[in-house]
Write a structure and sequence with these properties.
Blueprint lengths: L4 H21 L50 E2 L10 E4 L3 E3 L2 E10 L2 E9 L5 H21 L4 E2 L5 H19 L1
Antiparallel strand pairs: 1-6, 2-4, 3-4, 4-5
């Protein structure tokens, strides 16, 4: 059976339109949490942890969870609060990630995390620089707000986020010793 060229053009146009509808109709999840939502119940007696979102959950003080998917969704990870930290500057162990090492240095003043410096992170190409220029300030602000390593991963920077939390926990452990 022979089809007319006009009919084939019509089918091609419909297939193109269907493809565009599927492409632009797909919604990706962009979960952005404010630092106030990242506060665990045990880190501040004056804050309440009544906020919740569909992609993160509250983590008890002495447990650890890790996001298992690489989709860039937000997940809460970490292990402990910063109670009883000794004043000083502490450098965490370098955490090896798929794209390079991540190393964090914290300054503790008055028993709480005063500042966080990321002294090593993946920046060897333009994509790494683009991702980490957005992710690192978010991770630092989450850390100073939460005063612990129980922070949300940054969407789109899962490997850097995991390395950051691992090195941060190492620095917090040193500050406790």
């Amino acid at each position: 059976m022979k089809t007319s060229p006009l009919l084939r053009i019509g089918y091609a146009a419909l297939a193109t339109i269907s493809g565009l509808v599927l492409l632009f109709g797909y919604r990706t999840s962009h979960v952005v949490t404010s630092p106030a939502q990242a506060l665990p119940a045990s880190s501040s007696s004056s804050s309440s942890s009544s906020s919740s979102s569909s992609s993160s959950s509250s983590v008890p003080s002495d447990t650890s969870t890790t996001a298992s998917d690489g989709t860039g969704s937000s997940s809460e990870v970490g292990a402990s609060s910063s109670s009883a930290l000794q004043d000083g500057t502490y450098t965490g162990d370098a955490a090896s990630t798929r794209y390079g090492p991540v190393q964090v240095q914290i300054s503790v003043s008055g028993g709480s995390i005063a500042s966080v410096d990321v002294i090593d992170y993946p920046d060897s190409n333009h994509r790494d620089q683009q991702i980490n220029s957005r992710a690192i300030p978010l991770l630092v602000s989450e850390t100073t707000a939460a005063q612990s390593s129980s922070i949300d991963l940054v969407s789109g920077a899962t490997y850097t986020s995991r390395g950051y939390v691992e090195s941060l926990q190492s620095a917090i452990d040193q500050a406790r010793a």
